[in-house]
Amino acid sequence: MDTQWFEYIVVGCGGIGSGTLFWLAKKVGPHVLGLEQFTLGHDHGGSQDHSRAVRYNYIGKEYVSLCKGAFECWADLEKESGLPLVYKTGDVSFAEKNTEQERYLARMKETMDSYGIRCDCLDGERLNDRFPQFTRNPNCKALYFPDNGVIDADLANAAHIQLARKYGASIREGVRVTAIRKTGHVILVETSHGVFGCRKVIVTAGAWVNHVVKSVGLELPLLTTKEQVTYFGTPNIKDFTKGNFPCWSYYSPKGTTFYGLPIHGNSGSKAGIDAVGDLVNPDTRNYTPNRKNLDKCIRMLQKHIPKSLGPIIQTKTCLYTMTPDRHFVIDTCHRTGFPEVLVCCGAGHAFKFASVFGKILTDLVTDGQTTFDLKPFTLDRPALTDPTFEPQVNISKFEKRTQTNEISKL
Ligand SMILES: Cc1cc2nc3c(=O)[nH]c(=O)nc-3n(C[C@H](O)[C@H](O)[C@H](O)COP(=O)(O)OP(=O)(O)OC[C@H]3O[C@@H](n4cnc5c(N)ncnc54)[C@H](O)[C@@H]3O)c2cc1C
């Protein structure tokens, strides 16, 4: 079989791969190929659902500028597609007073203030005055972010892909990349359906990233977990619509982060817990929800947002692929002799960045630079290279749990 030639190949067409195909094809035209092992829009990975939260709630200037970039890129996509994608529902983060979590929120507030991001402090009473859906709790402290919101994830992925095709990108479904090799200046991408040649490759393979990058001499210490979100058929529908209810996160004193979103895409209010799922292999995992985590989520909602509960419409499982420090990976594989191969891993909180990452990856493969500070996301940081690095991830399998995971944001 002849080797088909493209300038750039994107491996994996989930959220980040779709975003990359869009920005890359927009910049370079038809010399782009996207390869997806399943069908577009499948739900075996990390990106497919009715909604995801788009938030500024981070600590650190690199994240704040990425968040600003994220909102700008989504706005560009909305403009170009004519589709509404982001809904500014606002967002509440809350924690109990006099806890490590409250101090964490205070630090978050400082970050927001220093970068001019709107964020109001509310005590438990004012939170309940503003959103009576939250139980009146004088013992709680909250931050309200008016500019955060919900993105229609399924639609955003589809829009990226359709516009990438408009700009001439080729996208092949059901094609699994098995290895990346190099002969002279040509990169060969070996797949289940033949070999493709190109100049540069961007690997956005989510939970399967190690399967792809091992052929370029890389193995990342990633933790892949089966997470879940539940849609509750609340009888109080109107109280949980996007116009009446914000996204939220609750940082419990035990270090667990619960989160939820208003109704979007179906009739259910949505809730889940960050990074408490079982470690899985993406090829052999099942789709059965974890009952213990579901019960824990229900107990939290009974206490803090009781009217959101109702019969379960669906509990949907989905993969997190986390680095031990929960920072992203965005880097080339130059240290193992493959500067032509760029790898990006979303670390379980990257849907909001899917479009801006696509733009960044495009700038990196075409111009070799970006205006964003990517230092925390390099492949040579201790979290990825030091085997003794303690995972800062709220997974019960790890004895050492951080009380407040700095990057535990959805
Ligand atoms: C329950 C849940 C809730 C979340 N909530 C939020 C949120 O509210 N806000 C937020 O910002 N983030 C959230 N996230 C995280 C976010 O969704 C993910 O970080 C992001 O979507 C990951 O995108 P990805 O493109 O890296 O991975 P994926 O979407 O998994 O895409 C990887 C793609 O690569 C393909 N692939 C892999 N290997 C190969 C191969 N060898 N050949 C060809 N194709 C291949 C896969 O089939 C897949 O389609 C959540 C995640 C989960 C699971």
Overview of this protein structure:
- With 410 residues, the protein is α/β, with parallel strands linked by helices.
- It has two domains: 173 residues, FAD/NAD(P)-binding domain, CATH 3.50.50; 162 residues, D-Amino Acid Oxidase, subunit A, domain 2 (D-Amino Acid Oxidase, Chain A, domain 2, 2-Layer Sandwich).
- The protein is built from nine helices and 22 strands.
- The termini are far apart.
- Flavin-adenine dinucleotide binds next to helix 1, strand 3, strand 4, helix 6 and strand 15.
In short:
26% of the residues lie in helices and 28% in strands. The chain is an alpha/beta fold and 410 residues long. The strands form 4 sheets. Strands 6, 7, 8, 15, 16, 17, 18, 19 and 20 form a 9-stranded mixed sheet that branches. It has a 6-stranded mixed sheet with strand order 10-3-2-14-22-21. Strands 1-13-12-11 form a 4-stranded mixed sheet.
